[in-house]
From TrEMBL:
<comment type="similarity">
    <text>Belongs to the short-chain dehydrogenases/reductases (SDR) family.</text>
</comment>
<dbReference type="InterPro" id="IPR002347">
    <property type="entry name" value="SDR_fam"/>
</dbReference>
<protein>
    <submittedName>
        <fullName>Oxidoreductase</fullName>
    </submittedName>
</protein>
<dbReference type="Pfam" id="PF00106">
    <property type="entry name" value="adh_short"/>
</dbReference>
<keyword id="KW-0560">Oxidoreductase</keyword>
<dbReference type="InterPro" id="IPR036291">
    <property type="entry name" value="NAD(P)-bd_dom_sf"/>
</dbReference>
Length: 307
């Protein structure tokens, strides 16, 4: 039998941050880490929804050590406030989970195209601002949730904010490519610095979450929203299955730097099964492009991770 959440080791004494933990994959990830003894911070944009998620988590895992902190990845001021409030506490696991998929063109508070701004730049800044705590914690990990849909497009370093032409699915694919390039570069820099930090990525396959319906809802496309909801019921795996690769990457002892973990089997149009090494596009391991994206991300966010 392959790996399951029952194989998560005892995490007592460890601390984890999960972005977007108010629902879907993020909620399941936070819940299972807390179930195994970790102190878990639910980093959520909406305090109301975050509070409801925390109440639900404590109802399902009464012994959990969990708390809610506000984090809006579409606002770098919020990211800085979140990181600045961390103080000198240890940080064992940072799960960069929150994201948007195929939403209409909008901009973040700092003027970035929203999918690139939230999915990549917000997490880049958050990781950079928390990096001193991660580096000070032996065996710390940064796990970034990407997607198989990264194959839709390589990053265009000359137009990261899609100012020339915006196509929502292409922008989503590029933001997920950015997640993998970020992981690749973070792993490379950690190794070069001799740091004990593990950077890896994961994807859920096709899991039933709010991602599929939020984009059509924001666009006012009711028919598309209904179709997405129907596909979630008929085709998608449950969030518990989709979160397993992330939980594996965050806790399993044999995870390799710059690995990309996803569901390990396909049947009846479902990606399911225990976590397994996943295919990734060759451009997501391009050293030159990952360095250029890192430099561009530093310039855009003003955050320069100390590695």
């Amino acid at each position: 039998m392959g790996w399951t959440v029952r194989d998560i080791p005892d995490l007592t004494g460890r601390t984890a941050v999960v972005t977007g933990a108010n629902s879907g994959l993020g909620f399941v990830t936070a819940r299972e880490l807390a179930r195994r003894g970790a102190q878990v911070v639910l980093a959520c944009r909406s305090e109301q929804r975050g509070r409801a998620a925390l109440d639900r988590l404590l109802a399902e895992v009464p012994e959990a050590n969990a708390e809610l902190r506000r984090l809006d990845l579409a606002d770098l001021e919020s990211v800085r406030t979140f990181a600045g409030s961390w103080g000198t506490d240890r940080l064992d696991v940072l799960v960069n989970n929150a994201g948007l998929m195929a939403v209409p063109y909008t901009r973040t508070a700092d003027g970035f195209e929203t999918q690139f701004g939230v999915n990549h730049l917000g997490h880049f800044a958050l990781t950079g601002l928390l990096l001193d705590r991660l580096l000070a914690t032996p065996g710390a990990r940064v796990i970034t949730v990407s997607s198989l849909m990264h194959w839709l497009g390589n990053i265009d370093i000359r137009d990261v904010n899609s100012e020339r032409r915006y196509r929502r699915w292409l922008a989503y694919g590029r933001s997920k490519t950015a997640n993998l390039l970020f992981t690749h570069e973070l792993a490379r820099r950690a190794e070069a610095a001799g740091a004990g930090l593990l950077a890896a990525a994961a994807h859920p396959g096709y899991a039933a979450t709010e991602l599929q319906t939020k984009g059509p809802r924001m666009a006012g496309a009711a028919a598309q929203e209904r179709v997405a909801g129907l596909l979630n019921r008929l085709v998608a795996s449950p969030a518990e299955t989709g979160a397993a690769p992330t939980l594996y990457a965050a806790t399993a002892p044999d995870v390799r730097p710059d690995s990309f973990t996803g569901p390990g089997a396909v049947s009846r149009w479902r990606l399911h099964g225990g976590p397994h090494d996943s295919w990734r596009a060759p451009w997501t391991r391009d050293d030159a492009v990952s360095r250029r994206l890192w430099a561009a991300s530093e310039e855009l966010t003003g955050v320069r991770p100390a590695l």
